[in-house]
């Protein structure tokens, strides 16, 4: 039996076909022990730490930070050290990957061929936060059913991830904290930790970024001196863009070509999943949009607009249950829900998340606000449980917080409707005997016309607007 083992990227509990390398905790030639941190990987939901499945020498690593590795493709190659602890044969730790042989041999989209070296001998991987294991043959594994989404539908796992702060280079921090530090240009080794046992937290990194107290150090002085000593070519003056030639005569222009239009950027993590989900929704849903304005002129005092929107959606769901439903286009079946789990779109720099505000129909204004604040905070620091991103019955996009009056938001199956709230505005309204200026909130309702009629959608929109028009 060969002492050389190839570790394939396992299913990290997300059901996604790939993940992005965030940071390697080892380098080629290092010796690593069983279950020690090997690499942190970013999926559409979280930054997950992958432990070493064996004890031994690291022979090869697939790609570098930012490269995308397909599930089932080679992640690392080891030379097993029999003198160090190894996992018992056949021990199952819970995570499986469902890659086909073709997927296992697929090259990395990052351009480094990370999956090209995946073995074709049928090696399969089972791994979890408690450690990985390599098995020698092809066991049959059942696939999980599709049940939810970051921005739509995505598979889930019953495995539980327990991330712990890992000491790398003398710094203790969670993988997500290290990812944030790289994103903000912060040298995590120079951040003052405030967590228990000297752990660097999200707030520590954000504070250091705001203060500018932990910027990466420049290169070594020797390298800097060599660079300084090298003759520098004179900088050419930037040519001003103009529709006139150098002779001052008008000239024809054309769109910029590839050479001046920037480099393609590989979508990763949340944005990568968002692209898949949106394309799938566009192919499966028959969308129709109705728009109208809710008149808020009768409101008494200052009120929480988002909480009122949630309350109004709940009222509309009770009046017309057809839009608080799921639809199966293959089986042509419809499921009406007696409760309202409202998916609330949250925009981030990494992409769009849609966490679920559970049992919105049982919450008062204070409960709604507390629930929304909790979900937004969890999305921001990427600590939101995967279960909170699945299973909503209808959704809300409050895009008017930024700009825009009306929209055609995307309905993501199995849901059949999404409500869009535009920018609050002051409109001139005709009233008996003259005109008045009223505060009005533009509302857009997009629904899957396969699952409900235009009349049902119109009655739903009216019930929503009528509730928003109430004084309080």
Commentary on this structure:
Helix content is 20%, strand content 26%. The strands form 8 sheets. Strands 16, 19, 22, 23, 24, 25 and 26 form a 7-stranded mixed beta sheet that branches. It folds into 3 domains: 4-144, RNA polymerase II/Efflux pump adaptor protein, barrel-sandwich hybrid domain (OB fold (Dihydrolipoamide Acetyltransferase, E2P)); 171-211, Irregular (Dihydrolipoamide Transferase); 270-468, 2-Layer Sandwich (Chloramphenicol Acetyltransferase). The chain is an alpha+beta fold and 472 residues long. Residues 85-128, 236-266 are annotated as: Disordered. One of its GO terms (molecular function) is acetyltransferase activity. Its EC number is 2.3.1.-.
Spell out the blueprint of helices and strands.
Elements: E1 4-8, E2 18-24, E3 31-32, E4 37-42, E5 47-51, E6 56-61, E7 68-70, E8 74-80, H1 101-104, E9 124-128, E10 131-135, E11 146-148, E12 154-155, E13 166-168, E14 171-173, H2 175-184, E15 199-200, H3 202-211, H4 221-229, H5 269-284, E16 287-295, H6 305-319, E17 325-328, E18 333-336, E19 342-344, E20 346-348, E21 351-353, E22 356-357, H7 365-380, E23 394-397, E24 417-421, E25 425-431, E26 434-448, H8 454-468
Parallel strand pairs: 14-15, 19-23, 23-24
Antiparallel strand pairs: 1-8, 2-4, 2-7, 3-6, 4-5, 6-8, 9-10, 11-12, 13-14, 16-26, 17-18, 19-22, 20-21, 24-26, 25-26
Helix pairs in contact: 2-3, 6-7, 6-8
Cofactor: (R)-lipoate
EC number: 2.3.1.-
Protein name: Dihydrolipoamide acetyltransferase component of pyruvate dehydrogenase complex
